[in-house]
Amino acid sequence: MAERLLINPLAGPLEPAPSPSGPVAFHRSLPGYAVTPLVDAPAAAAALGVRRVLVKDESSRLGLPSFKVLGASWATYRALCERFGIDPEPVVPIDTLRERLLDGPALGLVCATDGNHGRAVARMARTLGLEATVLVPATMVEARRAAIAGEGARVEVVGGTYDDAVERAAALAGGDRLVIQDTAWPGYETVPAWVIEGYATIGAEIEVRPDVVAVQIGVGSFAAAMVRRFAGVRIVGVEPVSAACALASAEAGELADVPGPHDSAMAGLNCGRPSPVAWPLLSRGIEAFAAVSDQRADEAVAMLASDGITAGESGAAGLAGLLAFRADLALPADATVLVVNTEGDTAALRP
Ligand SMILES: Cc1ncc(COP(=O)(O)O)c(C=O)c1O
Question: What pLDDT is stored for residue 201 in this prediction?
Answer without folding.
Answer: 98
